[in-house]
Amino acid sequence: AQAAFMPQELTTVRVQDPRVQNEGSWNSYVDYKIFLHTNSKAFTAKTSCVRRRYREFVWLRRQLQKNAGLVPVPELPGKSTFFVGSTDEFIEKRRQGLQQFLEKVVQNVVLLSDSRLHLFLQSQLSIPEIEACVQGQGSQTVTEAILHYAMSNCGWVQEEESRP
């Protein structure tokens, strides 16, 4: 009966707003906004908003796999070099796949214990910076890096910038 008083832990994670960066150049890529809102004690910041590209998701999944032991890590949407349909359709499918991936990841206690995941979702550190931070070689601890980002304005972007 005690459980009735425990607030339900809820984590909402959304992948939104795909944007093409360096458009028109040979090294153009798409990045996505990851919006996270939670009341879970597992997270340092209760709201966060970062931009990540597919390649960074691939890195994250590999790292989670390394550390998760026998825990299965959710799949990412395919890399699919051969795609029939418009680029927009492809980007939208990928966005949905990335969101499903993160939704499953944040529900997994084992994966949630990986500080790389937290830096990926709640700081704008690059992959090498995340690695350095996790290994204690960065200028900040994992928590400091997340709080530092949360205090900067970009960490508090309201979801959807409340469109008219």
UniProtKB/TrEMBL annotation:
Any Pfam family the entry gives: PX
SMART domains: PX (SM00312)
InterPro entries: PX_dom, PX_dom_sf, SNX10/11
Molecular function via GO: phosphatidylinositol phosphate binding
Keywords, comma-separated and alphabetical: Cytoplasm, Endosome, Lipid-binding, Membrane, Protein transport, Transport
Cellular compartments per GO CC: endosome
GO-annotated biological processes: intracellular protein transport; vesicle organization
Annotated ranges, domain PX: 10-127
Subcellular location field: Cytoplasm; Endomembrane system; Endosome
Superkingdom of origin: Eukaryota
Gene3D superfamilies, per the entry: Phox-like domain (3.30.1520.10)
Membrane topology: Peripheral membrane protein
Keyword Plastid: no
Family in the record: Belongs to the sorting nexin family.
Name of this protein: SNX11 protein
Native source species: Anhinga anhinga (Anhinga)
